[in-house]
Amino acid sequence: MVDRRLHEFVRTLRGARIRISPVEAEEAMRAAALTGYHPREQFREALAQTLVKAQVDRACFDQCFDDFFQFESMRTDEGEEETDTGALPDTTDLDSGDLSETTANLIAQSPEQLTQSLAEAAAQQDFTAMQVITQQGLFARQLVMNMGMGAVDDDILRLAASPRRRDQNRAEQLRDWRQQVRERASQYVRRQFELHGRAHGRALREHTMRAAPFRELREYHQIQDLVRRMARRLAALHQRRQKRAKRGAMDARRTLVSSLRYNAVPVQLHWRERRKLKSKVYVICDVSGSVREAARFLLQFLYAMNDVLPQVRSFAFAARFDEVTDDFRQYNPDVAVGRILDRVSGSGTDYGYMFESFQQACGREIDRRSTVIILGDARNNDLPAGEEYLAEISRRARQVFWLNPEHPSRWNSGDAIMAKYEPYCRAARRCSSLNDLSRFADYLLRALNNSQ
Amino acid sequence: MKTRIDSVDDVIASFARQGYICDQRTALAVYLAAQLQKPILVEGPPGVGKTELAKSAAAFLEAPLIRLQCYEGLDESRALYEWKYGKQLLYTQLLRDKLSSLLSDAESLEQGMARLGDLGDAFYSDTFLEPRPLLRALRADEPVVLLIDEIDKADQEFEAFLLELLSDFQISIPELGTVRARHRPLVFLTSNDQRELSDALKRRCLHLYIPYPEPDLERRIVAERVPELGDRLREQLVGFIQHLREQDMKKLPAISETLDWARALVLLHADSLEPDLVEQTLTLILKNEQDVTLARGLLPHWFSKQRAL
């Protein structure tokens, strides 16, 4: 039973996004066996030290621990439960003479004892299997049955069928009592659902969020958190790659000098550190209408990776063109987007004008270390395309990438003119969901690292 | 090495005897690590006594402490073992005559090669092996406490290399085969969080975070380490340090700074904190010019509040 409860706890933690391997879960059980459940703080520490390996997760762990083991500790922090305990009908005057043994035992229990029996019965059930809210009734019924309330049902039926008035009164009293117990059971089950079902729901929701089109993402609360975590994971991965790629050619001079110690045998080889070219990234985002959401996530993603992408300059345009690097550095994405829109929005995007402005602003700095990323739907409102500017940028920069939130089949429909711009880009990709974005960021970092 | 640790309280009491005052969770970590035979990863801000913990554990278990200080570029030859190239060369030079006489009666090239082959093994044997901390810990005749200090300063590759050691307590040396620990060492790894450690490493360790001490714990530590300091002054000093830790500073004073300061005040024969005294000795606890300026600004307010109490 102990192991089962701990397994459930581990699953709860996983649901709360703490990564726990099977080995760690096993360690936690061994640690718990060593320390025991009391004192509670020591038990908590033992679990924390074996399960939580990052201090940032500690607060989350504590929250889960308190929620999960609250029943066992008999702590009631919700007011409603306190009143419940008081409202449990008094069964002491109930004559248990001809009742079944199980029933007699159950009704003789004090509220605390009853809570204990409930917890014991609950330990036989696997609440992590509960995934949708409608399963609660079923689990509550099972829980009540596990407590041995079946016997009570039988007794009630028997007493109610009896012709004697006194028996019928007792049946009535028992029904009241049973109702209370059932309510406590469903309360317990509801809390279990909140612990486990929520975790399951969160995993599902994250899965949906990753694949959902940007414009629908606004509805999700945890989206910022998700973007940050995706970006961090990717950044950590690439940090490792960068390190590996650092070692350069053999340093003949140092090797020769050190070999003198060993009779001119080159025992120790020395390597040159490869010099890293600092790559500069320029991001130009269309922030009109539907493209706006994509721009916001792209910028948020790139800035969350600023330890592997130190030099990012960003620009936004709609009717006007402006640099927005500082907005995203200083403010949270919601505020930043608001500020940017105030400055550049207006009717009609003009790509030709944008390229011209960009050329004027940064044309001189663009060199073989520069990567230019353009995000937009290439809908130019039938204005001059200005592809000659892009051609010039592309010639000077190392590479140009184009991200388009629309499906490739629509890249040239209506006033969209991707065909004019595409020849000057190293790659043009669709970017309409977080998954696309993450794939592009991975591709970008590879492209930046390999060429150094 | 002491093989049995009876309880968490046993650890606390023994640590206290050596002058290392720790709280329940630190003692629990040492207890669990010894019982489960798992390494402990100790994290926390600099100066809270992470390295000291390993030293105390070694004294408590009556085991020798072997320390490996990590730094960028640390490699196997510094951490695990190295061949004594110089000695090998010297031996071949000295034995040159012996060698040629040995080879002179060899009738064919193959025969000579075979003889040299036997010799080769002699040159890659224990005589020419220079064991470094990790190998020393594995081959020790008695259980030891191994401290791998500031693992976050080592490269990612080195961290990966440690994995075999930490989970199986064995290590592979191409020329000698697999070296298994004769006695499992108790391993402490410390980190200042300079970079994120890999999940694989964390998975193999227990995790202990040592924060800045609570006022009560800090008072006990000061009382233990600097007993000459008067009660009243100790109270004031800890109060002031705790107050500083609530500020937004570049480098917060840790327990090691508290102790330095306490010792300095004893030397200066101070019996209570005075504004002048604090101003003059502030550089003992704060190592950054901006922090010192910030703290100076706080002084008048803090002292007026103290007087009001």
From TrEMBL, chain B:
SMART domains listed in its UniProt record: AAA (SM00382)
Entries under InterPro entries matching the protein: AAA+_ATPase, ATPase_dyneun-rel_AAA, CbbQ/NirQ/NorQ/GpvN, P-loop_NTPase
Residues of the AAA+ ATPase domain: 36-214
Segments traversing the membrane: none
Pfam families (alphabetical): AAA_5
Domain of life: Bacteria
Xref: PANTHER family: MAGNESIUM-CHELATASE SUBUNIT CHLD, MOXR FAMILY PROTEIN
Name of the protein described by the UniProt record: ATPase AAA
Lineage, uppermost ranks: Bacteria, Pseudomonadati, Pseudomonadota, Gammaproteobacteria, Oceanospirillales
